[in-house]
Write a structure and sequence with these properties.
There is one protein chain. By secondary structure, the chain is an alpha+beta fold. It contains 12 helices and 9 strands. The chain has 3 domains: 7-118, Acyl-CoA dehydrogenase/oxidase, N-terminal domain (Butyryl-Coa Dehydrogenase, subunit A, domain 1, Orthogonal Bundle); 121-221, Butyryl-CoA Dehydrogenase, subunit A, domain 2; 223-369, Butyryl-CoA Dehydrogenase, subunit A, domain 3 (Up-down Bundle). The protein is 49% helix and 15% strand. The strands form 2 sheets. Strands 1, 2, 3, 4, 5, 6 and 7 form a 7-stranded mixed β-sheet that branches. The chain has a two-stranded antiparallel sheet with strand order 8-9. It is globular and about 80 Å long. It starts with 6 loop residues before the first helix and ends in a 15-residue tail after the last helix.
């Protein structure tokens, strides 16, 4: 595959960049941080009006049917502008429903495309582990319902979402998924105070009764659905992270050309030049790795290891870039009145979401060390 964007992808990316640069200003981001909802409803409507919420959804669901790499480019540009909208959670849940959902669930995607329905997803248990094993939430069959008990943590955009795609442990059936109405009795969300000042919540389930019609896919497909959810989420979060980090790097490079020391711009000093070069290599590496992972996901090829490679690399290197940008700016970079900290806080927060560096490195290590025979990436994971 060619991991570089083609002409059409470049056109869409440039269009998205111009849009977010004009609409998602630092002033809007600061306002969203103070808003109880933590997002901009006006910006969300504009994105929906452009049809971008269905960019990689099938046409029979109201989407544009474009490859998954286009969704990655959209998240990249939204991340570049640190757009305060629940784009990541909605697109991830929608993609899973488009692939595995029932006819009624797929019908809901038209509301998503029109911006009338926001979605979220819930994977992590009380310990915060990122795993498709769905520990921490159990479901038992009770007539025509499944009763959920347990907790999910770090649920992004739960407050504003109408439905949440939840992974849970089904009695005797392993992992299962359900699309749960967020207003269901016994379902309680507790907001977190996050570094990024965005919408994250712990969601507790106390005998939440979910109709079996809300279950996603066949019971035998539970593990595959969970894997797809985790792969989509980690890959698209990496795209969003790479976009934010590239903009952060550009701020630093621009400032290095303006700030003077000893009678010349600090960018003229070799130490700063080398640092900026390392920052560019880090951002480009993250971007290329996630493009490959998204392409493999779109082609239906095994991609879990490529996703973990991309997320582990980005989680490590993007924080390096953000810290280096702060170093180049000096003390001004840490002032709340200065815009750079808006990007720094989100890069740090996003690097931990959808799996930490350690968790994704464990996945890569398992593929390298625990599979018999030749070491080959791009192969399915051996079940634990």
């Amino acid at each position: 595959m060619d991991v570089l964007p083609d002409e059409q992808e470049t056109l869409i990316q440039e269009t998205a960049r111009e849009f977010f640069a004009a609409e998602s200003t630092p002033a809007l981001v600061r306002a969203a941080e103070k808003d109880p909802s933590r997002y901009s409803a006006a910006l969300w409507k504009k994105i929906a009006d452009l049809g971008w919420l269905g960019i990689s959804l099938p046409e029979d669901c109201g989407g544009q049917g474009l490859p998954l790499t286009y969704a990655g480019l959209l998240l990249e540009e939204a991340g570049r502008a640190i757009a305060p909208v629940p784009l990541h959670g909605t697109l991830v849940a929608a993609l899973v429903l488009a692939r595995h959902g029932s006819a009624a669930q797929r019908a809901l995607l038209r509301q998503v495309v029109q911006g009338e329905l926001i979605l979220s997803f819930a994977v992590q248990g009380l310990q915060g582990a990122w795993s498709p094993a769905a520990e921490g939430l159990t479901g038992r069959a009770e007539g025509e319902y499944v009763v959920l008990n347990g907790s999910r943590t770090f649920v992004d955009g739960f407050r504003e979402s109408g439905h949440c795609l939840v992974l849970y442990q089904a009695e005797g059936d392993g992992v299962a998924a359900a699309l749960v109405d967020t207003t269901s009795a016994g379902m309680r969300g507790t907001d977190y105070v996050t570094t990024a000042k965005d919408s994250q919540a712990r969601v507790d389930f106390d005998n939440v009764r979910v109709p079996k019609s809300a279950l996603v896919g066949e019971p035998a497909r539970g593990a595959a659905i969970a894997r797809d959810l985790c792969d989509y989420a980690a890959a698209l979060m990496t795209s969003q992270l790479a976009g934010a980090t590239r903009r952060d790097m550009e701020f630093a490079v621009e400032y290095a050309g303006q700030r003077e020391a000893f009678g010349q711009p600090i960018g003229a000093f070799q130490a700063i030049q080398h640092l900026c070069a390392d920052m560019l290599i880090a951002v480009d590496g993250a971007q290329l790795l996630v493009h490959e992972a998204l392409w493999r996901l779109d082609q239906g090829l095994p991609a879990s290891i490529e996703v973990s490679q991309a997320k582990a690399f980005a989680g490590d290197k993007c924080i390096f870039v953000a810290r280096s940008a702060q170093q180049i700016h000096g003390g001004i970079g840490f002032m709340m009145e200065f815009d750079l900290q808006l990007w720094y806080r989100r890069i740090v927060a996003w690097s931990l979401r959808c799996g930490s560096v350690r968790e994704h490195r464990q996945q890569v290590a398992a593929a390298l060390l625990e599979q018999p025979g030749k070491v080959r990436l791009g192969m399915p994971l051996v079940p634990a």
